[in-house]
Amino acid sequence: MSIFLTETDRVIVQGMTGSEGRKHTRRMLAAGTRVVAGVNPHKAGIRVAFDIEPIGPGAGRVSAGTVEVPVYGTVAQARRATGATVSVLFVPPAHTREAVVEAIDAGIGLIVVITEGVPVADTTWFCAYAASKGARIIGPNCPGIISPERSNVGITPPDITGAGPVGLVSKSGTLTYQLMHDLRDLGFTTCIGIGGDPVVGTTHIDALAAFEADPDTRLVVMIGEIGGDAEERAAEYIKTSMTKPVVAYVAGFTAPEGRTMGHAGAIVSGSSGTAQAKKAALEAVGVRVGRTPTETAQIAREVLAATGAQA
């Protein structure tokens, strides 16, 4: 199984006609994702042609050739015409709140916000609005979500790994890709890049709960980073609610105090939010924490092997 995203989901792309939207729509289609429509109020009625060469382990459902995707003026029109269940956004930061609200109001259940630089006030508002309407936001400022061999929504390369027993939740896009690569021999149920902004729609805890409920996920790898207290809160959740093993990596052990490190949420003040403090909190509840991504992958193999031996 997978969490949040399956091969049956029908995906629309808000901003599909822009350069980034076109590039990643082509990759999603080539990976077997069911992209059924684009949305652009200024280009409604056109069809965008994509030349597809299948890529990745999910490409068995894809034939090489040209795929035409229709463009609608609104998300509501696209959903009525196609039965879409998921939307992915490639829109400028200034228009992201409006685009997310449009998707929520149209009844889209999963909304993946790739956009970087969304004002925190806007994110706070639309995440609260989504929660009130029963919609799930992933992001913003994230690579999206991939259930290997099933579907890929966002910008994650689809050819890193296949399906397997590991679940992955990460603040960092680059580290998502690296751990997927390092554990490609095992494979993944779902990999989620939740984004590194101070406010995100899906948290570590949300993903941990979903992986705990997924019968095919046997081990969870959690990637955090300096700043905030998300990892400490995840540690408390793991202590009280997780029966499956969790392995973690926290980026930023050498980060200087008081300096923002890439992500808007990655800033350390005093002892709060340091990698060492997060490592200590996780280890206190039985989570093994790697000092590097490579070490984390090795620990994951050891833990999974031990779990299999016990089974």
What structural class results from the helix and strand content? alpha/beta
Number of strands: 14
Q: Which of globular, elongated, flat, extended, rod-shaped describes the shape? A: globular
The arrangement of helices and strands along the chain is EHEEEHEHEHEEEEHEHEHEHEH
Question: How is the biggest beta sheet arranged?
Answer: 7 strands, mixed
The fraction of residues in strands falls at 15-25%
Averaging pLDDT over every residue, what do you get? 92
As a percent range, the share of helical residues equals 25-40%
Runs in which pLDDT lies below 50 for 5 or more consecutive residues are: 267-271
Descriptive key words:
311 residues, alpha/beta, seven-stranded mixed β-sheet, 9 helices, globular
Task: Describe the fold and architecture.
The structure is a single chain. With 311 residues, the protein is an alpha/beta fold. It contains nine helices and 14 strands. The chain has a seven-stranded mixed sheet, sandwiched between helices. β6, α4 and β7 form a beta-alpha-beta unit.
